[in-house]
Structure formats: C-alpha cells, structure tokens
Amino acid sequence: MSEIPKKWYVIRAVGGKEKKAKEYIEHEIKNLGLGDYVSQVLIPTEKVYQLRNGKRISTERIFYPGYILIEAALTGEIQHIIRNLPHVSGFLTEGKDKEPVPLRESEVNRILGKVDDLMDMEEESITPFVVGEAVKVTDGPFSGFDGTIEEISEDKKKLKVMVKIFGRKTLLELNFVQVVKE
C-alpha cells in the first residue's frame, strides 16, 4: 500500500484549550483507525524560564495560542470529524469556499525549525558572567544593590557578589537569574 500524500493544516481551537483539543483529535483518530490519513498533531511550544519565590522554574508557552497544526490528508469525512470535536472551532480557511488552506512548505519548515531549535537550546540562553564584572541585583531582599562578581559556580548557576550594605562590604550568593550586567 502506497503512502497517502499529506499536507500541513492549521486548526483553530478554543484559547487555552489547545492541549485538550489535541487530545480529542488524537483519541478520535485512534478510535476510528484514521492513522493512515493523519500522521501528526502538533502544538508549537517554547520553554520559558521564570523566577518564583527565588527559584527558577521552566514552563511551556504556546507559540500560536488558539491554533494547532495537523499533518493530514483531508479526504472524505476526516475534515468533518475533526471540525465537530470539542474545543475545535474549525480549520483556517481562505475566501468564500471555506476549504482548509494547506501551509506552504517554507512556513512549515520555519515553524518546525523554530520548535527544534528551542528544544536543542536548553539552558545555553543564560548569560555567562566574568569575575570582577559589575552587576545589579534584580531579585530578592537585596534587589537594587550594585556589586562586583567575586566567584562563579557554573554547575550550580550561582554567583558570589560583593555588595556594599550600610557602608560595609558583604558577600552574597545569588542565582544567575537574580542579577543583570551593568
């Protein structure tokens, strides 16, 4: 049996319910045995690092809120089945005919390439610091203080910074994300 030619399409989903809509789509495809017609359902995401209670937490953020990508051959009832699932508003269409418009190859490569690049780039986004460099504390009880880096612990992602508090020099241990370069 030859491979069925598939194209990438964009599905509109209810904002904030993209993951649930993806689950419904995948579940329906599996139940109806449509795996030959739908090969991938994808929500493009990126990792975002935030500071909460002085700790660095990574969360996933959706690139295109309200949209899901699907690689499929929209033949027969497949389009109708997907449109009528919970949290799915329909396909991205153009013009009056309301037929789903496939993405161009260049658009797909750009979107998928961006997702792959972000997967590869785990924690390389952290700015390397140099001993003796002037920094400003941006988080914690010493926020707003200026200081100089005395020691760097790459493996723990921590710095020892010398700041002047009440006229006396004090050594603080801070996370990389708690300071910015001056």
Question: Which tags fit this structure?
Answer:
182 residues, alpha+beta, 5-stranded antiparallel sheet, 4-stranded antiparallel sheet, 3 helices
Short synopsis of the structure:
The chain is of the alpha+beta class and 182 residues long. The chain has helices spanning 18-32, 78-83, 105-120; strands at residues 7-13, 38-42, 45-52, 55-62, 67-72, 88-91, 134-137, 146-153, 158-165, 168-175, 179-181.
Description:
The protein is an alpha+beta fold and 182 residues long. It is 20% helix and 38% strand. The strands form 3 sheets. Strands 10-9-8-7-11 form a 5-stranded antiparallel beta sheet, with no helix packed on it. It is elongated, with a radius of gyration of 24 Å.
Regions with little confidence, pLDDT below 50 for 5+ residues:
none
In whole angstroms, the N-to-C terminal distance is 63 Å
Strand content: 35-45%
- Mean pLDDT equals 85
- Give me the number of helical elements: 3
Helix content: 10-25%
Largest sheet: 5 strands, antiparallel
Strand order of the largest sheet: 10-9-8-7-11
Number of strands: 11
Global shape: elongated
* Broad structural category: alpha+beta
Order of helices and strands: EHEEEEHEHEEEEE
Could you tell me the radius of gyration in angstroms? Answer: 24 Å
